[in-house]
Write a structure and sequence with these properties.
Blueprint (H helix, E strand, L loop, with lengths): L2 H11 L4 H8 L3 H8 L7 H10 L4 H6 L16 E2 L6 E4 L10 E7 L15 E8 L1 E6 L2 E6 L3 E5 L4 E4 L6 E8 L4
Antiparallel strand pairs: 1-2, 2-3, 3-9, 4-7, 4-9, 5-6, 5-8
Helix pairs in contact: 2-3, 2-4
């Protein structure tokens, strides 16, 4: 998927200049330009900040042209990857209009994270680690969770996910409202 072309199209549809989007999102104008020219692949955190400023959810961003259907069941191949190329964030039901919940299957290879900048938005998020381990930082609290461990927090608190282990980590998460 051409993230840069998609970002530019949506930005222009909304009548927002690169400079204005940079100011609204707290990301530099040159970063917006580099993303739109596909010179830089944004981290999940950076892309989320940019999309929040438009405003558009990540799910809508990746599926905008697709129409809703009444689909109930999804195979693994049908999940939309919202990740940054390293982290896989596979969204369930991405084509559903009016979703009130985002359910993700997240896969973090060794050393992968959601970016150096903390993510922050309105809502709540929870999840359970299926395999491997992941360090989750929420505000000033940080903990390494292992398979079977879970988490739940208000997402307006700055947060970050990081796999510091040598094994892949997989988790299932849910968030409301569906900012992804």
């Amino acid at each position: 998927m051409d993230v840069g072309k998609r970002l530019k199209s949506i930005r222009l549809m909304r009548g927002i200049s690169q400079r204005e989007l940079a100011k609204l999102s707290g990301v530099t104008n040159s970063m917006i330009s580099q993303i739109e020219q596909n010179q830089v692949n944004p981290s999940v955190g950076s892309l989320k900040k940019i999309l929040d400023a438009i405003p558009i959810s990540m799910g809508e961003f990746f599926t905008l042209e697709m129409e809703s259907d009444d689909k109930i069941f999804y195979s693994a191949e049908e999940l939309t990857d919202l990740g940054d190329g390293k982290v896989k964030m596979l969204l369930v039901g991405s084509k559903q209009n009016g979703r009130q919940l985002a359910i993700l299957r997240e896969i973090y290879p060794p050393g992968a994270d959601t970016g150096t900048e903390f993510i922050q938005h309105e809502g709540e998020e929870g999840g359970i680690v299926i395999r491997g381990e992941i360090e989750i930082t929420v505000g000033s609290k940080s903990k390494v969770l292992k398979a079977g461990d879970s988490y739940y927090f208000e997402t307006r608190k700055p947060h970050r996910f990081r796999n510091k282990s040598k094994e892949e980590c997989e988790l299932i998460s849910a968030a409301t409202p569906p900012t992804f």
